[in-house]
Every structure is written in structure tokens, then in C-alpha cells.
Amino acid sequence: YIVLQGVMYKLAFASVRTSVTFPSAILLYLKRNLISIFMPAGGVTSLAFFMGDIEKQNIPRTKIYFASSLYAFIGMLTAGLMALPIFIYGIVEGITGDGEIMALAFLVILIILLFLMYRSVVRKKLLYRIVIRIVPSAEVYIDEIISHTINVRYLIYTIGTSVTIDLVCIGLVYLSMVALGIKASLPFAMMSYVTGIIAINVSPFMKGLGAVEISMSFVLTRLGYTNVEAVTITLLYRFFEFWLPMIVGALSFLLKINKLLMRIIPALLIFGLGIINIISAITPAIAARLHRLEEFIPFDAIAASNYLVLIAGALMLLTAVFMLRGLRSAWWIALILSAASCIGHLTKAIDYEEATVALIIFIILIFSRKEYNIRGNPRLHTIGIWSAVLTIIAVLIYGTIGFYYLDAKQFGINFNMWQSIVYTIRYFVFIGNPGLVPHSHFTRYFLVSISISGFISLAFLFYTILRPYFYREQTSPEEFDKAKQLVTSHGNSALDYFKTYFDKLIFIPENTNGFISYRTAGSFAVALENPVAENPVSMQECITKFDRFCFDNGYITAYYRVPEESLPLYWDLSKKSLFIGQEAIVDLNNFTLSGVRNKALRNAINKVVESGFRSTVNTPPLKDGLMQKIKAVSDEWLRSMQRDEIVFSQGMFIWNEIKNQTVITVENYEERVIAFLNIIPDYAPGEATYDLIRKTDECPHGVLDFLLAELFKYLKSLNYSTVNLGFAPMSGLDDPHTFTEKTMRFAYERIRSFSQFRGLRFFKEKFFPVWKNKYLIYSNDYDLLQIPAALSKVIKPGNE
Fold first, then answer.
1. Contacts of 405-412 spanning 24+ positions with Cβ under 8 A
2. What is the mean pLDDT of residues 595-612?
3. Helix H segments across 123-210?
4. Comparing 779 with 87, which gets the higher pLDDT?
5. Does the pLDDT at position 44 exceed 50?
6. What is the rounded CA–CA span in Å between residue 448 and residue 451?
7. pLDDT value of residue 498
8. What are the b/e assignments for 277-289, b being 16+ CB within 10 Å?
9. Model confidence at 96: pLDDT above 70
10. Given this model, what pLDDT does residue 41 score?
11. Per-residue model confidence as pLDDT tens digits over 5-25
12. Does pLDDT of 637 surpass 90?
């Protein structure tokens, strides 16, 4: 039914001499159908919604409106043409009432009226003049529609497809009668269908919801069906004709608009199906259905199906948790369990309602398969699965031997080998056997031990299959040396220094002149900025191979603080980007303390100088006495700020590192160091940067301004052209578009705990830098829920 609707839409576009892809035609139908349910006169008003996919194919809106209007009109026309002979037949047979005849007359009048209106507009008669008088701007739009000539051949094909859809719907009504075991009549199916289709076309709200059910049921009762039979036939037909297209339409929005939900919804649905399974398995079955089923399936098989549904339900509850983590194995298990549930519900009591839910969830899982791509390590999974299988075999052997050698007095049965195996399996999978009565405490404990052992071994197998394995590696000294060589030859960023820092792991792909620096946290591998590579081609190769490496080892990749100019590289790889802040770059050639706008900064620096403080540039290697002084400053700063050292995109106080770096200190008249900063390598051409900038509590206001001014003076003497002041998180988001960006903007401006970011931005703004946008690169919307926690772990030095 849905496919035919897509075919009809595609042919309608062909009738106005344009072409659309078949998937986009189906999507347009599904979305239009969904909106038309909630819009008055939805068949017309919903045409203006959700045409983005069609417009991307360079099709003008006027043609989209024209084709959609043609589609709607032909649907009404064929309904009238189909209804006319059927109602004539009904009148002859005496089964058509006045109400149906009036509804048909209304539909015919509506079709004629629409045709006359269209002809009046095309010929620029009365209706055309009225519209132009009321809305003058509509003249250009209407003239463009009129200019579109219709391809008669495809118009005939469209009409033929619409008639085919009507015949299919009649077939659905007839099959509903057959499926419910009710006397099936093709003429009666035709009569009830055309009554329903007329109700849809004349009903202004909810696409005939309610009106169709009432009118079809009423007609069927007049044709001799009982009230219950008429209602069940109508509801089953409407499930396929109305509810299923609506559900698929809603899913089409989820697939297109919000991939975040495509990770969460299937997991929630599996959890819900698990609860449905458990409730269905422990509640009594409908007796009439059970008796009918017993005519085809033995009672033991029915009982086994009930246990299957119960066990599947329990496993689904656990599976849903792992699905939220994106595990591929969890998706496979959910798919298998939903299929088993669909079959189990039908074979335990013909519970077609629960089976239908399971089938729908199975279909949703198929659509969402690309959202579950975290894999486990195959080698370790194999070991775990074999261990679980051997445990299961051991339990089965234990139970079989126990039953076989137990004395007949224990159960009143002298078990042979086959009976021992069968009873062991039944208790192993918790089915049991009501006819097996233990005659002692020992035999009761024996049966319980089989069930407990079975549960533990099955749970271990289930956990082994689901458990993700995260690859842990150590970077060798040789890999660090090679990475440092690549940074020296191809580095171009202020962050390149930290890409070979002690906390990093290094990924060097084969046959590629580049590397990626990253850290792992949970299921994430977070890369620091771009790869270091000789050219964009090598950079893209690094990203592609790193993504494959992480996929094979159970990681999700993210790239932190990527510059704006690199975004097309990631977009080409189908990745997404999120603005996370800006980096401040000061132009040393234009920086000056003179002028009106720098008055406040100049006054703050002058007060520091007048108070007797001075700066010193200390070149490496630093003396141990100086190292002890700046270490004391660093420790005091950490205590007063109540912070711990953090790494990843910045450094920490490491004695041997700082000892071999240039450090600028601020000292008081007693030569006590009260503030310092250390200059680190910056591989961007003509640029310099610093890492730590720390001070004591007794520092006067403006000492850090003074320290940076001295840094600028020193770097300028070395002919540097710019200085990188570092990153200001969340700042600079002046025009948020997405919900995530709007949330970030709100948090940055309104939430007190984010005030430190505003303060950092204000401090850097005093030097009038140029701000460079920085982004987080990710693959899936759901990842955004987990990446903040992953980032908070990777910045900790002790994270493993």
C-alpha cells in the first residue's frame, strides 16, 4: 500500500514533466499523510510541509504543489469513479441507504467543483480574478503553475495507479474478513470500502478518524454482520490502511530529523517489549484462542513457547541497557529476541496483539541498525563464548548423570538416558515438569541446582556476548620518537606540543605520513585536534584509518578543538561538528598599550610597576633554586583555586619539562617569585604561546596583565608575529541555531558555575585578540550525551 502511494506520487511528478527519486516520493507521501491527520482539510493544507528532500533535487516549489495537488485530486476522482458503480449495484440489491447516496453525491459535487475551480484559474476567469484582487502577489505563482503542461501518458498512469490502490484497499477489507474467520464477501468488502473512502474525503478532521470506523461498521451491520464482526473487520483494515502508514510516517521523521532518538527509542522499545513479554507470559491466556491453538500444536510446545516469551522478556530488559551504549552485539540479540517474541506470542496463545508489537519493533530495529556499531574484540569474545558453552555442557552432563543414576525411589521413575537428557534440559531452561515430584530434600535441591546452574551459565554466555571489549594499548618510546619527528616536520598548531605529551596514546597508521594523538575514556577515543600530517590527503587517511581502528576495537571517536578551516575535511567523512568555543590570537605587530581603548590595561600595568614589581626572562636550563620558587607558586595557586592538575589540551607542572623551557617570572622587591608563565613550543608559523600562567594569593591586581605584556615584549624581540592566548570555552556563540548550541549559550550566560568561562573570556578580551572558532567533531547525536563525561576523564592525568 505504501509503495503504491510512492509510485503514484512519482507518476504525479512525471505528469507535470519533472522527476523525483522513488525514496523521496515515498517519504513525501508518508510525511504528507502524517501531517494531514492533524491538519483540517489536510489533503490540501499539508502540501506546504516537509518538501526539503524534493527541493534538494532542484525542483521548484510550484511543481511540487502542482504535482501534489494532482495527486490529491486524482485520489478523490478515482474514489468517486470506483464508488459510482458499486453504489449502483447496492441500490439494485437494496443494500444502499439514503446516507450513503447523499455522501456519494457530496463527493461527486466536490470533485466537479474542484475541476471547475481549476478550469476557472487556468482560463483566468472569475476565480482567477478574485484571487489576484485579494492577493496580488499570487499572480506570478499562479501563472507559473498554469504554464506547466501536463504529460497525458503519465497522467493516465497516475490514474491507473490510484485505481490499483483502491483495489488493494478493497482486498485489505476482504482479507480482514478472512483473517478473522468471518464470512468473506467481495461485494460487501467493496461496499464498506467505498463508504469509508467517501468518509475520508468529506471529513475535514483527522483524515476521517472515527467517521470511517463508524460508517464502515454501520454499513457492514446492514449487510448482515454482527456488531462485533463489523467493528473487528473495520479495525483490522484500518490498522493497515491508517495506523501503519501513520507509524511509518512518524518513523520517517525520526530517521531524518533526530538520530539521537534513533539510538534511544529502539532501546526503550525493547525494554517495553520485555515488560510486555513478562506480563503476557505470567497472565492467563484467552481460553478460546488456547483451545483453537491446541488443535494444531501440542500442549508441551505451547508451554515451551510461553517460557520462551518469559525468558526473552527478561533478557530484553538487560539488552536494552547495552543497546544504549551502541553495542552491535546487543542490537543483534534484540533483533533475535524480538523475532522470537513475535513467533512465541503466536504459538503460546495466538496473542497477535503482542506479536504485532514485536514485529513493529523488529522493523524499527532494522531501520536503526546503523546506530549500533561498537564491536567487541573477536578473539576475547571467542574465548568467553567457548568458556560459557563449556560451562553449559558441564551443567547438562551433571544433570543427565544425576537423573540417570538416581534411585527410582527418589522420583518414582527409573530414568533411561534419553529421559535424563530431556529432563535436564527442561530444568536447565526453567520449563520444569509438573509431573515430576521429588520425594526427598536431596532431589528437590538437585532440581534447584540444575536450574540455578543453568541460569548462571546462560547469564554468563549472555554477558560474554554483550560485553564490549575496549582495546588498551601502550605507546612505545619508538612511536613517541616518530611522532615528535612528525611534529617537527609537519606541525602547524599551538596544540601540537601536547600531542606527544606523556598522557597521550599515539596512532600511526601504516603507509601514511602522519599520526593522531588521543586518550581513551569508557567507550570513547578522544583525539586532540587534527592529525599531524604532511598534507590534507594524509590527514584524511589518518582519520579514516583511526576510525576503522577504533571501530574494530570497540571505541567511538571524537575530535576535540578542531579549527574551523578543517571542518570540510570531516564533513566529507560524514561527521558532525559542534561549536565549543574560541581561541584568542594577538597580533604582536599591532598590539600597543597606548591609545584610549587600552587606558584601563595601561593603568593596571603601571600600578604593578610602580609598586616595585619587575619581570625576569629565565632561559633554560633553569636553576633548581628558581624551580623551587615557581613550584611553590604553582602549588599555592592550585590550593587557592581548589583545582587539580589537568592535561590533554594543556600541560601540568612537570619539573623536568619546565626546567628546559623559557619561564617569565614576576618578582617583588625581596626577589620572591609571585607569578610566572612558561613558554612552550608552538608549531604554527610565526606564532608563540605559553602553557601555565599562575600566581600567588598576595599578587596585586593587574599582575597577570603585566606578565602577558612582558611576554609580548619578549616575543616581539624574537620577531614573532602572533601569540596564542589559548582557549575560551563556550564563548563566542553569538548566533546559536541548534538546540544544543542554544543550551550552551544559555548555560554560558545564565548559569553561575559557568562564570569562570566568562571571566576567562573577559581577561583575554583586554588584549583585543582575533578569535578563532573551535569545534568538537563527532559521528552521532547520541554521542553528545556521553562526550562531556569522556572529556572530563581524559583531562585527568591519572586516567587510564
1. 406/443, 406/446, 409/439, 410/438, 410/439, 410/440, 410/442, 410/443, 411/436, 411/437, 411/438, 411/439, 411/443, 412/437, 412/439
2. 88
3. 126-134, 138-147, 152-179, 186-202
4. 779
5. no
6. 5
7. 95
8. bbebbeeebeeee
9. no
10. 44
11. 999 999 999 988 888 888 888
12. yes
Please report where in the chains the cell 518414582 appears, as a residue. Answer: 412
pLDDT digits (tens, 9 = 90+) for 511-542: 889 999 999 987 789 999 999 999 999 999 99
Cα distance between residue 521 and residue 528, in whole Å: 13
**CA–CA gap between residue 568 and residue 561 (Å, rounded):** 15
Contact at 8 Å (CB) between 278 and 313? yes
- Give the lowest-confidence range in 43-57, 582-596, 668-682: 43-57
Query: How many beta carbons lie within 10 A of that of residue 542, not counting itself?
Result: 23
Of the CA atoms within 13 Å of residue 65, those in its CB half-sphere come to 12
- The helix/strand/coil state of 286 is coil
* Predicted confidence (pLDDT) at residue 224 exceeds the cutoff of 50: yes
Scan for cell 611553590, then name that residue: 632
Q: Sign of the CA dihedral 335, 340, 343, 348?
A: negative
User: How many Å apart are CA 201 and CA 166, to the nearest integer?
Assistant: 13
**Helix, coil or strand: residue 456:** helix
Per cent of the chain over pLDDT 70 is: 80
- The set of residues, in sequence order, having a beta carbon less than 8 Å from that of 597 and lying 6+ positions away, is 768
Mean pLDDT, residues 178-192 taken together? 89
Kindly report, residue by residue over 133-166, the tens digit of the pLDDT: 665 545 555 555 555 567 888 989 999 999 999 9
- 11 Cβ partners below 8 Å, 6+ apart? 154, 157, 158, 161
Q: Are strands 524-528 and 532-533 parallel, antiparallel or unpaired?
A: unpaired
Cell of 242: 491508517
β-bridge partners, 667:
614, 673
Q: Which residue has the cell 505470567?
A: 282
* In contact, 312 and 337? CB cutoff 8 Å: yes
Cell 607542572, residue located: 653
Helix segments in 123-151, DSSP class H: 126-134, 138-147
User: What residues are paired with 614 via a beta bridge?
Assistant: 667
Length of the chain in terms of residues written: 800
SS3 category, 253: helix
Comparing CA positions, the residue from 290, 196, 202, 198 lying closest to residue 234 is 196
Taking the C-alpha atoms of residue 16 and residue 733, their distance in angstroms, rounded to an integer, is: 45
Provide the grid cell at 373.
556499531
pLDDT at 461: 67
d(CA 680, CA 699): 24
Interhelix angle 152-179/186-202, rounded to 10 degrees, is 120
E strand or H helix that includes residue 675: strand 673-680
Residue 754's Cβ-count burial label (10 Å; 0-12, 13-18, 19+) is middle
10 Å Cβ neighbour count for 444? 13
Q: Hunting for cell 509431573 — which residue is that?
A: 435
Please report the beta strands in 508-651, taking only residues with DSSP state E, as ranges in sequence order. 514-521, 524-528, 532-533, 556-563, 576-587, 614-618
SS (H, E, C) 573-608: CCCEEEEEEEEEEEECCCCCCCCHHHHHHHHHHHHH
Contact 37, 211 (CB under 8 A): no
Q: Are 573 and 567 in contact (CB under 8 A)?
A: no
- CA-closest candidate to residue 529, choices 482, 476, 485, 565: 565
Q: Average model confidence (pLDDT) for the chain?
A: 81
Note whether 43 and 204 are within 8 A (CB): no
Tens of pLDDT, residue by residue over 345-364, are: 888 888 888 898 899 899 98
* 264 compared with 776, residue with greater pLDDT: 776
* Segment holding 679, helix H or strand E: strand 673-680
Pick the closest to residue 41 from 268, 274, 203, 214 (CA basis).
Answer: 203
pLDDT computed for residue 202 by the predictor: 65
Pair type for strands 514-521 and 505-507: antiparallel
Q: What is the CA radius of gyration of the chain?
A: 37
